[in-house]
Structures are given as C-alpha cells and as structure tokens.
Amino acid sequence: MPISLHSHSGQYCKHAKGTLRQVVEAALSKHFSIYGLSEHMPRTRPQDLYPEETQLAMQPSDTDSQFRAFLVEARQLQTEFKGRIELLVGMETELIHKDSLDHAATLVRELNLDYLVGSVHHVHQIPIDFDEAMYAQAEAKAFELASETGRSNGISATECLFRDYFDAQHELLVRLKPAVVGHFDLVCMFRPNHGLSKETWDRIRRNVDVIAEYGGIVEINSRAWKKGLPGAYPQKSILEVMQSKGVRFCLSDDSHGPDDVGMHYSKLHAYLLQVGVNEIHFPQSDQSGAMRVASIPNVTSHPFWTQFK
Predict the structure, then answer these.
(1) Is residue 223 helix, strand or coil?
(2) Domain 7-120+169-308's class?
(3) Average pLDDT over residues 229-246
(4) How many CA atoms lie less than 13 Å away from 190 in the CB half-sphere?
(5) Is the Cβ–Cβ distance between 70 and 20 less than 8 Å?
(6) What are the strands, taking DSSP E only, across 59-149?
(7) Which strand (E) or helix (H) includes residue 16?
(8) What is the mean pLDDT of the chain?
(9) For the chain, how long is the longest CA-to-CA vector?
(10) Is 289's pLDDT higher than 90?
C-alpha cells in the first residue's frame, strides 16, 4: 500500500544504478501500490553537468534527449504495469542559475507530466549534495557573497549557506508550486549538527507557509538515513512546524536504483509513528487533466510494513 514519489534509475541518471524497468519491478516486488518515476530535469549549460556526466563527455543536449527518452519509456511502463502498480511520471527540478525556473516551467507546460518534485540541489550554482568538497565550496561562496553585501555579521559560512539555501527554495516554491516538495532540508546533509538560527527558522517558516497556502505535499524522505542523518528529511523539529500549519505529507525512498527501492522503510515506519503521521497524500489527475490530491489513511497500520521488519 504505501508509496514512494521520488526515484531515479541509472539508465537516465548517471549517478544512479540499474534500469527504469528494474526499478519498477523492484517496487512491484515490494508491494508498493503507487510509485513515482521522477528523473532530473535536463540542464542547459555545460558547467551544470555533474562530474560523472563530464567524464562521459555528455553535453547539455544529451541531458535533454535522455530525459525525453525517459518519458517515453516511463509512459510505456505505466501502460504495461497498469492494474498491478500505479506509476506516476514526473520530473525533479533543478535550480542552478537565473533561467532554471523558466526552463522548468516551460517543460511542465510542454510535457504533460503527472506531477513535479520541487527540489534544490545547488546553491550559488554549486552542488551541495554531491560530496563534502563541493559543499565546502558552496559554503565559501555563500560567505563571500554575504561579506560583500555586509550580511555576514560574524556568522559562519555554514550559516550563510543555510540561509541562502532556504531563500533559493522559497524562489522555487513561489514560482513553480510543485505538487511534491523534495528533501526539504537537504542542506543539512553534510552539516547535521548545525543548529538552526532564528534567521534560518524565519526562512523555514516562510517556506512552510508558502507550501501550506498552495497545497503542496512534503515528502518524508528515507534517503537521509543512507547519508548518515539521524532522521528523515525533513527533520523532526521542521516536520512539527509543518504539522502545525496543516501541511500534507507523502513518502519517498528517493531510490537511485532497484536496490534502493524501499530503502530504510523500516526506519521510516518508526519515524512516522514517532512524529504522529498516519495519513499520506499523493497527486492524482482527474479526467479534465486538473490536479487533485488523494489520501491514504491509517498508513502506519498497513501490513505493507511487515516486510521491512
């Protein structure tokens, strides 16, 4: 019964593994009833390619053709597996430079996607989830820019990065209003012990208010445990703020290949019980093509979870 609305395959994401079909077959074998296929949106500049893509001599045009090939196969699998598992075909956003959101909005209009996962992976055009070295570069850039504008005021480079991350996220939320908000607090990946300042909390609450206002769904993402974090994204203190605002939640394994499907769902089940989330939601198109939100109640008591114990 429970679902995942965020996944990748090595076929269409070079830092993942396996084929798209293998990911779907793994989801079916683990008794998922709804599974989202959400490869990264294509990029438009060579400097935005990830290291593994550069090593393969890929060009931005290759990421576009790769994504469109993903859409073709995903729709074929959606039809082939109908009646056995409900597959949703979507896209995960990138916000790298000033034109990224325009590009994402254009793709949403053109491609008739089932849903959008709104995620931030870069701050000041530097990936913050690739490795520690790149994260440190992003910290340094955030501090440099804050110092130039007199905003550093003796705060750390990490604090500068946290503030800039949530500002970038706010821009994405306001512009795209994604149905699913991806790994809300990804910025804590390499700095899990960084305390959230009042200024950062102000940004978090502002972003939560935006999500609540337009009716977005925040994923509770189990991949955080693979990164060594003590809880899922979002962390408990942030999730509690979301609950107080009436924000709705979905589940995601953020799998990067068939072996990741249902990854850390035993911990996810315990986390749901701890934070008191017992109803999850997912986007669903009606016959007119308009998006609505469906719900699954009593999710923590479903027998689905017994396979992960």
Answers:
(1) helix
(2) alpha beta
(3) 97
(4) 18
(5) yes
(6) 86-92, 115-118, 122-123, 126-127
(7) none
(8) 95
(9) 58
(10) no
